[in-house]
Design brief:
Layout: H1 2-22, H2 36-44, E1 46-50, H3 55-58, H4 79-89, E2 93-99, H5 128-139, E3 142-147, H6 160-176, E4 182-184, E5 191-193, E6 200-202, H7 212-222, E7 227-230, E8 236-238, E9 253-254, H8 267-272, E10 279-280, E11 283-288, H9 306-316, E12 322-326, H10 337-353, E13 363-366, E14 390-391, E15 399-418, E16 426-435, E17 438-445, E18 452-471, E19 476-482
Parallel strand pairs: 1-2, 1-12, 2-3, 3-4, 4-7, 7-8, 8-11, 11-12
Antiparallel strand pairs: 5-6, 9-10, 13-15, 14-19, 15-18, 15-19, 16-17, 16-18
Helix pairs in contact: 4-5, 4-10, 6-7, 9-10
Bound molecules: beta-L-fucopyranose.
Beta-L-fucopyranose is lined by residues 61, 186-188, 286, 293.
């Protein structure tokens, strides 16, 4: 009897520990995490900006607001040419300047005469916003829009009534043109302008004038999926420069309490984000393929080369941000041949650099994996599935995994991705190759985030070890690639 009860105790214990083993839980989300729409956005990686308006015809960057609508007359406008070029180059979304600072509306807004409806283009019947949104839909790109809060044409810019006008225009854009994935609010606000003949300088309270909470809530009530971009978010933040550079340290988190569009002195914070920040507000890298945002014939010889675009890719997408590359149509209403050639070349470089992932046929082992449960094993790192990941036990923060190629391979790039639905965690890592009986560090990085690409410039090794040296919690890595 006594012996039987002992056996029973063992059995019960055994069953409990077995069932405990089976119940290894995934890591809990750590800190702020992306919303579903932000996650979709991260996965887009490459989006295009299109600056097109009356400036294209006046050779200006910032129209004063007194330009006659008569000037807007592209001779061979073809939105499909833009969108097909972008699609072929791998872009997933397009954001159009529906109205820039000069106030000219590229759609026939019923709230102003300063619009395409009073231009000679298509006999006043044209609607660029419609053509571009429809073409984007046709080619499977998402459509986004930019509506400059600053309006140098309006008589009442600076007064309360202008905000009514601005909101009415937002309503037009958000009800008439299908789903909008991203809305861009520019930080350039207030200054001199035409203002319907006043020709003066007007300053506004950048923090309060636009009543952003209510303005955004209004848009959100029409299209809840839209992501708002501004210097300070709330969904996507500016990266703090227009040179194409995300921070090598780039947290998707930041504490936006004291931030607002146009606030000075926050460039570095925006570029790097903040470890432990209170909100998930990833940085977007906006940069132009030409020196200007708008087309100028004088800049035809200054279009970024394909190699230069690839460098921009490495300093934006390769640092965990999205690239928003501006491609300005010319006076014909077409992407210029030089820009098209660079975009095609850019695609070729991407395809050739990332053609062969050496990890696909390699063995991956890790110091440990969570609860020894296969669901969290390092084999998830090269299974081509972004929804599986390698994770360790909660208390295992400094750890490593090894990639064995079998034979020496020469390689140029390492690509890492964290599984960001559970938060951004890694703060420092090292890349090592075997040396003697140990390892030698050949590269170091800080954050990973959605994607981190390190360039080695050609090394040869039969093994790589990725050592996580600092993280906010146990690492959760979904993908590794070596090229
Ligand atoms: C800036 C604007 O002033 C430029 O003209 C351009 O639109 C750029 C994307 O944002 O703040």
């Amino acid at each position: 009897m006594h012996r039987y009860s002992l056996l029973l105790v063992f059995l019960v214990l055994g069953i409990t520990s077995c069932s405990e083993k089976r119940e290894v839980l995934p890591p809990q989300p750590l800190g702020p995490i992306p919303s579903d729409d932000q996650l979709i956005w991260h996965r887009m990686e490459l989006n295009a900006f299109v600056h097109f308006t009356i400036n294209t015809f006046t050779d200006k960057e910032w129209g004063y607001g007194d330009e006659s609508p008569e000037l807007f007359d592209p001779s061979a406008f073809d939105a499909d040419q833009w969108i097909k070029t972008l699609k072929d180059a791998g872009f997933k979304g397009v954001i159009l300047t529906a109205k820039h600072h000069d106030g000219f509306a590229l759609w026939p807004s019923k709230y102003t005469e300063h619009s395409i409806k009073n231009s000679p283009f298509q006999g006043g019947q044209g609607d660029i916003v419609k053509s571009v949104s429809e073409s984007a839909k046709k080619y499977g790109l998402k459509f986004g829009t930019y509506l400059s809060p600053w309006d140098r044409n309006r008589a009442d810019y600076g007064e309360a009534s202008y905000m009514e006008y601005y909101r009415d225009q937002l309503k037009e854009l958000f009800t008439g043109y299908g789903p909008v994935f991203e809305m861009w609010f520019d930080g350039a606000n207030g200054g001199d302008g035409y203002y319907d003949g006043a020709r003066e300088t007007r300053t506004i309270d950048r923090q309060r004038y636009y009543d952003w909470p209510n303005t955004l809530a209004m848009v959100d009530s029409i299209q809840p999926q839209v992501l708002f971009f501004s210097d300070a978010g709330p969904d996507i933040r500016w990266v703090g420069n227009e040179r194409g550079l995300a921070g090598e340290t780039n947290w998707n988190t930041i504490t936006p309490d004291t931030l607002y569009a146009g606030k000075a002195g926050i460039e570095e914070l925006l570029q790097q984000g903040a470890e432990g920040g209170s909100h998930w507000i990833p940085a977007e890298v906006d940069v132009s393929i030409r020196p200007g945002w708008f087309y100028h014939q004088s800049q035809d010889s200054l279009v970024r080369s394909a190699e230069n675009l690839f460098q921009l890719y490495l300093t934006s997408v390769g640092r965990g941000s999205n690239l928003l590359l501006n491609v300005p149509p010319d006076r014909r209403g077409l992407f210029h041949e030089k820009d098209v050639a660079s975009l095609q070349g850019f695609r070729k470089i991407l395809d050739s650099v990332f053609k062969k992932d050496l990890v696909k046929s390699a063995q991956i082992t890790a110091e440990s994996f969570r609860g020894n449960d296969e669901r969290f094993s390092p084999s998830n790192l090269n299974d081509g599935n972004g929804d599986t990941y390698w994770a360790t036990d909660d208390e295992v923060v400094q750890t490593s995994f090894e990639i064995s190629f079998g034979v020496p391979k020469s390689m140029n790039y390492l690509l890492l991705q964290e599984y960001i639905p559970l938060g951004q965690r890694v703060a420092a890592f090292e890349v090592q190759v075997p040396k003697g009986n140990g390892w030698e560090t050949i590269a170091k990085g800080t954050t990973i985030g959605y994607k981190r690409i390190l360039e080695f410039g050609g090394i040869e090794a039969s093994k790589l070890r990725i050592k996580i040296t600092d993280a906010l919690g146990c690492p959760v890595i979904s993908n590794v690639g070596v090229y």
